[in-house]
Amino acid sequence: MWGNPGHLAEMRRVVEERRGQATPERGPGGEVLHVLVPETNKEDGTYDGIDWGGERVAEEVYAEIKKLEQEGRKVTRFSVTGYSLGGLIARYLVGILHQRGFFTSVTPVNFNTVATPHIGLPRYPTVLSSLFAFFGPKLLSRTGEQFYVVDKWSKNGRPLLEVMADPNRLFYQALTLFEHVRIYANAVNDVTVPYPTAAIELEDIFVNHVQDGIKIEFDEEYAPIIKSYTIPESTTRPPKPRAFTAQWFKELKPNRPLLPPALQFSFPYNVLTLRPFPSSSMS
């Protein structure tokens, strides 16, 4: 939340630099990359909700396509990347485009999200997390309600994130049209969007990765990206510290958050519906 298009300036520069006008970087049909960074969702506008954000971006997409057509160019392939809240807006966006028949003439290619709370903002059994879960829906307006899955978005009272994870609804069906779906999650140190919700997982396998001896292989070109990891069949953990010592309190960190209310009562229906898609992790 609270972002603005300027936050993506460097990302846009790198994408255009690496995948720009050079012939070797063009699409299979000689397509030239054109990058659109939406302008309508920024700062206070991010309080309005995932759905309103998606509607706004859809209008920007159609306006940009119309502009390109007036210049004699035609859009034939489509990819989308969303960061944090932007990833949820992107999921809503592709549902709208699918409903309007956009993908009958435009090929959906890449769908990427980075540090996106796909199953909402989970609550850990800590005082700070409990305070965030209590005040978040109240202070963050419609977006906060949707983040914490306490909204009643559909006519029958289902939260928006639950609806978007339903295989029978167009939001999920739109995702299945893309050739590549990549989900990137911060493996550690992300207190806002922890690994389980960003990666659509029940367990935070990296919370004790050093003690558990998890073997991690990093991507050769982009070192912060985890290429693969291996969990040992058995782990030799040091003896448990004495109760109420400093080390004892340190090891109280849970590896499974409390799921948002809607997901607690309908597991595994809402959590596992996106698991057929591949996921990646970032350290």
From TrEMBL:
Family matches, as Gene3D superfamilies: alpha/beta hydrolase
SUPFAM superfamilies for the chain: alpha/beta-Hydrolases (SSF53474)
Sequence intervals crossing the membrane: none
Domain DUF676: 1-197
Alphabetized PANTHER family for the sequence: LIPASE ROG1-RELATED (PTHR12482:SF62), LIPASE ROG1-RELATED-RELATED (PTHR12482)
Family (UniProt): Belongs to the putative lipase ROG1 family.
Protein name per Swiss-Prot or TrEMBL: DUF676 domain-containing protein
Biological classification of the source: Eukaryota, Fungi, Dikarya, Basidiomycota, Agaricomycotina
